[in-house]
């Protein structure tokens, strides 16, 4: 009996398993995989640098955290921005290291829902894997929607900077939102072979933008900086909550800029040597994202002359500080083009990951009766076309909500963090319980060894505490305009998940049924 059989014995819908000789070449393994129903349909076009560029552009940390400062400044102020990011970076890295080890042993495109199926005991394997898949899919789609929203915010801010008397209408903002969504859709649907090049450019653009904007802000401020005390010790609490709770709520901005660190695991079938490259990309992207974001936010706080006016500026917080620092509308507009371009690339990258998540989950019959379409790869475009269409549809649906209520859209944005963290909690819990037993008999190029359980426990603590905190309303007393509707979003996703499980999933969802073949192909890819 193979190790895979031991993992899956007695499970929900036990898989057909066949072990291939270690020396079998890739073409023979792919042919064998086809025999078991897992034909390798995606081309391995993504090099290590392409995947790193995708991950850096997708996290978009320095840009995303700056654009969402309004989440933190009332909930801790500069202290939450500067020190909260270090807290979030540490917690995220603990989670990233934990799952990087899992990805090294089990390079699977389903990411956390595949890992859940592998490590959870048989009686609960199918249902928990299905639940994790739904949480992760919903989280990635809602995270992709944030790029369209923040990109539209940048364009609206530029208009407000040059035409202060012009008030952009809701339908006009929605058209900007649609434009960003369509650009990501078209590239992912019909130009998939260009994506590796685009992702390399995206990573380079993001890094050049970070350096250029940071240096320009410092140079234009001409030594007129805020004091170190103002930047590093000023604590603001306008939430109504106690200071400790306000600080925890302020962490949402930092976690938002680092969430989705497992993105590259969903590109396993499109990259060479995924068992080695994917974990490297995961950890490197978090390190780069958190370090560039921390440096940029410190510079931002040093050059911001009036944070109160920044928060109420019609241009948005980014353009407001650029304008304050440069005293020039032209210079501020030129600088924000780096942010705007980075957000375009982020939207493209997030759509890529979200569509791969949908495609992989549907291929394992996780998306109900629509799975055969959503799990297919278009023979001409070599893209999971219907999965891309599905993602774009829901991104546009989220945008439609903003026509009636900006609060509802903000709930969806916040839900992206909570939903993805819920998808991490389930496999992390079983990693802690089972420890190194799950890796016995499987190839590992590196191991956490005796540090595994302490790191997993620290990671789990961060997930549990922050997930609970991010469900609380940001201000008290609570009113309709300040209520946190994340719990409603989670409830809707949970109901849809439960209904799909009852109607289709409990009979047809069997997890990665050809696990041994998929692992064989992934480990042989070069």
Automatic annotation (TrEMBL):
GO terms for molecular function: transmembrane transporter activity. Residues 1-10 have a biased composition (Basic and acidic residues). InterPro entries: AA/rel_permease1. It is found in: Membrane. Signal peptide: none annotated. Residues 1-21 are annotated as: Disordered. Keywords: Membrane, Transmembrane, Transmembrane helix, Transport. It is a multi-pass membrane protein. The chain crosses the membrane at residues 46-65, 80-103, 115-134, 140-162, 174-195, 201-220, 241-261, 281-303, 385-405, 411-433, 454-476, 482-503. The keyword Transmembrane helix applies. GO terms for cellular component: membrane. The keyword S-adenosyl-L-methionine does not apply. Its main location: membrane. Pfam families: AA_permease_2 (PF13520). This is Choline transporter.
């Amino acid at each position: 009996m193979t190790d895979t059989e031991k993992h899956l014995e007695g499970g929900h819908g036990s898989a057909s398993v066949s072990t291939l000789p270690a020396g079998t070449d890739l073409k023979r393994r792919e042919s064998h995989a086809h025999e078991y129903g897992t034909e390798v349909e995606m081309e391995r076009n993504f090099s290590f640098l392409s995947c790193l560029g995708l991950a850096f552009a997708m996290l978009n940390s320095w840009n995303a955290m700056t654009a969402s400062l309004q989440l933190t400044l009332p909930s801790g102020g500069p202290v939450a921005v500067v020190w909260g990011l270090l807290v979030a970076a540490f917690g995220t890295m603990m989670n990233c290291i934990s799952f990087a080890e899992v990805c090294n042993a089990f390079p699977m495109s389903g990411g956390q829902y595949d890992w859940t199926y592998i490590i959870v005991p048989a009686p609960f394997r199918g249902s928990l894997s299905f639940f994790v898949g739904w949480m992760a899919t919903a989280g990635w789609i809602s995270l992709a929607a944030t790029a369209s929203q923040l990109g539209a915010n940048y364009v609206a801010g530029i208009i407000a900077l040059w035409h202060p008397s012009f008030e952009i209408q809701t339908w006009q903002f929605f058209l900007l939102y649609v434009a960003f969504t369509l650009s990501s859709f078209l590239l992912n649907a019909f130009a998939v072979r260009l994506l590796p090049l685009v992702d390399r450019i995206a990573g380079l653009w993001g890094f050049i933008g970070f350096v250029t904007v940071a240096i320009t802000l410092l140079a234009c401020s001409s030594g007129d900086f805020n004091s170190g005390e103002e930047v590093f010790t000023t604590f603001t609490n306008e939430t109504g909550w106690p200071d400790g709770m306000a600080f925890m709520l302020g962490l949402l901005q930092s976690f938002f800029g680092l969430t989705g660190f497992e993105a590259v695991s969903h590109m396993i079938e499109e990259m060479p040597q995924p068992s080695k490259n994917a974990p490297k990309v995961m950890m490197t992207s978090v390190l780069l994202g958190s370090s560039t974001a921390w440096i940029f936010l410190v510079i931002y706080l040093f050059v911001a002359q009036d944070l109160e006016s920044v928060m109420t500026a019609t241009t948005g917080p980014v353009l407001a500080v650029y304008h304050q620092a440069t005293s020039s509308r032209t210079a501020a507009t030129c600088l924000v083009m780096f942010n705007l371009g980075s957000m375009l690339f982020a939207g493209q990258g997030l759509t890529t990951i979200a569509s791969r998540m949908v495609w992989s989950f549907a291929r394992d019959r996780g998306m109900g009766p629509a799975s055969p379409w959503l799990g297919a790869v278009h023979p001409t475009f070599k893209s999971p076309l219907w999965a891309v269409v599905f993602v774009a549809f829901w991104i546009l649906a989220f945008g439609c909500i903003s026509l009636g209520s900006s609060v509802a859209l903000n709930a969806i944005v916040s839900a992206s963090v909570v939903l993805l963290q819920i998808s991490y909690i389930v496999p992390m819990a079983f990693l802690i319980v089972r420890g190194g037993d799950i890796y016995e008999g499987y190839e590992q190029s590196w191991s956490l060894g005796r540090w595994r359980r302490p790191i997993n426990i620290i990671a789990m603590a961060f997930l549990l505490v922050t997930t609970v905190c991010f469900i609380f309303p940001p201000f008290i007393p609570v009113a309709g305009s300040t209520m946190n509707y994340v719990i409603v979003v989670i409830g809707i996703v949970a109901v849809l998940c439960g209904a799909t499980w009852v109607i289709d999933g409990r009979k047809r969802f069997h997890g990665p049924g050809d696990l041994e073949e998929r692992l064989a192909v992934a480990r042989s890819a070069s």
